[in-house]
Each structure stands twice: as structure tokens, then as C-alpha cells.
Design a protein that fits this description.
- By secondary structure, the protein is an alpha+beta fold.
- The chain has 2 helices and 6 strands; from the N terminus they run ααββββββ.
- The two termini are 20 Å apart.
């Protein structure tokens, strides 16, 4: 995700190695909206407190549900031309719970859905 949002072309991200289905489609669309507005993101994203809440390996395509704390406090949107930070609302959540659904594909596990919970962590 960091590479996708940092690169207006999106070519260096190779997000399809890690995400598929709705998760990939939504991430690419969100990054495109930011890039169309002349923004890129710098800094890093943190992921902590990962907890597997459900696993089903008996399905044709095994899947798991993982709950995590997503920390975007050091991930800054900036103007792509000037590198000037974009002003954000002071009340926005920068550390929040996210629930991800993953599937085990022949190439490895892929995130197929990310659901931010709008709850701080």
C-alpha cells in the first residue's frame, strides 16, 4: 500500500502479490483518487496486534479472518508537485481497528477484503 500511494504511476507497488478481489480493486481506486487530486503519501504504515479470529482450511479455498490495529499516524499525504503536507482534520483516526479476510491461493495468501471498523485501537 505504501508503494502504491507513493508512486503516482502505481507500477512499483505490485499489490496483486498481496491483495485480490475487492481489497485490490478498492486500494487501486483509492490511490488513483489521491493521485488524480495531485497527492502522494510519504512515511510508513504500521500494523500491530494481529489476531486471527477465524480460520477455515476445509473449504476449496482456505480462508482466515484477521483483526489488526492499523497505524497511519506517520503516513502523510503531500502535494505531489511541491511535497507540501496536506492539511488533515485534527479529529481523524490515525490508529484504528481493521478486519481483513484472506484466502490461500496457489501463489500464497491474499487479502481479499479489508474492513476498517471506525474504532480506535
Amino acid at each position: 500500500m505504501e508503494k502504491l500511494y507513493a508512486d503516482p504511476t502505481g507500477r512499483s507497488a505490485h499489490l496483486d502479490r498481496y491483495a485480490a478481489s475487492a481489497a485490490l480493486k478498492n486500494a487501486e481506486a483509492d490511490a488513483k483518487r489521491a493521485h488524480d487530486r495531485g497527492r502522494i503519501y510519504t512515511g510508513g504504515v504500521g500494523l500491530t496486534d494481529q489476531t486471527v479470529t477465524k480460520v477455515n482450511v476445509s473449504r476449496d479455498i482456505p480462508h482466515a479472518i484477521v483483526s489488526s490495529c492499523l497505524d497511519i499516524s506517520k503516513w502523510q499525504p503531500v502535494d505531489a508537485s511541491t511535497k507540501t503536507p496536506v492539511t488533515l482534520p485534527s479529529n481523524r483516526l490515525t490508529k484504528y481497528l481493521i478486519v481483513s479476510t484472506l484466502e490461500k491461493w496457489p501463489e500464497g495468501w491474499r487479502v481479499i477484503r479489508d474492513e476498517p471498523q471506525d474504532k480506535p485501537c
